Amino acid sequence: MAVLRLPYLATAVLSGALFGAGLYVSQMVDPLKVLRFLDFTAIPSGGWDPSLAFVIVPAILVMFIAVRIGKGRATPLFDITFHEPEYRKIDRRLVGGAALFGLGWGMSGICPGPAISLIAFQPDGLWIFLAAMFAGSLAGSLILPSGHQRRLSDAAS
Amino acid sequence: MEAFSPLTAALGGVLIGLASAVLWLGNGRIAGISGIFGQLLPPAQTVVWRVVFLVALVAATALTALAFPQIGVGGVEPAQLAAPPAAWSIPMPVWLIAAGLLTGLGTKIGNGCTSGHGVCGLARLSLRSLVAVLVFFGVAILTVTVTGIV
């Protein structure tokens, strides 16, 4: 099975390592720095930290190039297909989910990448946050329609 | 380290972009952390790569902090989580549990977070991701404004 072969797993390790290095180097691992970006009230006083925008734009540009390269290929290097996201509809679920996430993100300055990345530093309270995030994700999967096909037909309607 | 840091930000952004590019062109997978994290339980055949990805992510964070401590938080400065607004007298664990639950629930229902929708989705020119990004950035900015948490 492709997903257990060495090149496939090595790719996952390389990607995870680049991601973790990127989160530290960009300081997006620091919840307080992320909050200083989200604090637009600090713009008039000059205390706003626009760093997050300087992280996400280059990240998008690099990935944009990779997506273009991928379009010229039938398959990725180590799997039989590109796993394109299957849900296309802009619905209440998407907007509601994004709003709930935005609320949690604004309360903490922690999105899922940095949440995992912070394990490297074990700040006080991190495991409480991680356990709650995992529980929230599980709760979400119970709310969503069960079964892959049902979700797909739901998304297509 | 309070200050705006465009150079390390951009360098880190390129690394995150490369991480997404490697996973997409190598394994045809979206490097969305909420998706990788949220599917750690069965169906099991994809669990192995998700676990090794997350372990590598944590290890690389620790190693780059050791190699470049001067960058700041986690290197020379202890990492810390944000405390709830003082005036609200909400205990820290309650605040963290609420924020964590909302983050887990929201990213599951909305199919993505800052990496999946924000980096990969926008790079794929997905309209769905654009909507999600505008909503979660908008709500997060509003939340910080209302709570005055910074």
- The proportion of residues forming helix of chain B, as a percent range, comes to 55-70%
- Portion of residues in helices of chain A? 55-70%
Form type of chain B: globular
Q: So what's the oligomer here? A: heterodimer
Distance between the termini of chain B: 14 Å
The fraction of residues assigned to DSSP E strands of chain B is under 5%
Q: Identify the overall geometry of chain A.
A: globular
Number of helices of chain B: 6
Largest sheet of chain B: none
Major sheet description of chain A: none
Radius of gyration of chain B: 17 Å
**Average pLDDT of chain B:** 94
Query: Low-confidence parts of chain B lasting 5 or more residues at pLDDT below 50?
Result: none
Number of strands of chain A: 0
Largest interface: A-B, 118 and 117 residues
SS-derived structural category of chain B: mainly alpha
* Strand segment count of chain B: 0
Give the SSE order of chain B as H and E letters.
Answer: HHHHHH
Strand content of chain A: under 5%
> How many domains make up the coordinates of chain B?
1
Number of helices of chain A: 7
Structure description:
The complex is a heterodimer of chains A (157) and B (150). With 157 residues, chain A is an all-alpha fold. Helices cover 63% and strands 0% of the residues of chain A. By secondary structure, chain B is an all-alpha fold. The chains are: A mainly alpha (157), B mainly alpha (150). Chains A and B meet through helix 1, helix 2, helix 3, helix 4 and helix 5 of A and helix 1, helix 2, helix 3, helix 4 and helix 5 of B. Chain A: Keywords: Membrane, Transmembrane, Transmembrane helix. Chain A: The chain crosses the membrane at residues 7-27, 47-67, 98-120, 126-144. Chain A: InterPro entries: DUF6691.
